[in-house]
């Protein structure tokens, strides 16, 4: 895939003018207030996985409007003290899969809450377990356009509310010390950004090649799914463009990024046709712009990669980055952190 977006120098300076709805904060405050009328933890059940070094629980918590959302909770076995928790959100089309597929963070010494994605889990991985109980009108195949004619009915509103409530759930888990980091790839990265804006006292945000950023630009810039689900919907539902664009203004992760306060680590791939790099930089460059906070923000750049981004290389960067911000007392020091920008062809930007 050739380079197709702005040059890297322009990406670093890219700060698009945003069209936020005037009642964005009121809308999200009301949405989260309604969700929070339900007790967040519904059920936490131990699960036998056959692993001796990681303990696992099957968690159900209350998401948007109190709907039950499934999750896995994993911790390093034999640790009696409370631990910080890394909340992970899943990429588009996937579900929480099997618990044994999520060993990175618990083996690094953290608690790990893996949120299932309502109504997804049928495209890759090992399934999802959470239905989306809310109906919708006509929609294109996939999840993007469910209820898209209104922010109140939009699937993305429900999903972002679930993500914010996952942070609430992580703080209430047994063995959690209250510190929470959020992370994810693609859709999961967009949800991590959204959670960082909707729950601005999270401790750290790690968003890899994030989806759901500057959505309107992405629709025009790439012909890849999932953004093209919106194009196919509007190609049939002529005359609904204004309503759809209005909805997208409420669920654009760039608007929520401006409200964040936590340190953030992003990654972008310059040949990414699924989440174009300029849309990622829009969120990164606008990070914390409205909050009055001055957090540290870093972005890892992969010039020769498509939507796979940095893959395991980025995981190593994340481990070192998070260890500085959420150290775990009593665990063996894993040694010097790798220098993120050392490998050839990559570069880190910090602000």
TrEMBL record:
Entry-linked InterPro entries: AB_hydrolase_fold, AXE1_dom, CE7
All copies of domain Acetyl xylan esterase, residue ranges: 1-323
Molecular-function GO terms, alphabetical: carboxylic ester hydrolase activity
Taxonomic superkingdom: Bacteria
Pfam families the record matches: AXE1 (PF05448)
GO BP term, pick one: polysaccharide metabolic process
Biased composition (Low complexity): 342-351
Residue numbers binding substrate: 92
Start and end residues of each stretch annotated as Disordered: 121-148, 330-351
Catalytic-site annotation from UniProt: 186, 272, 307
Protein name: Acetylxylan esterase
Organism: Brachybacterium alimentarium
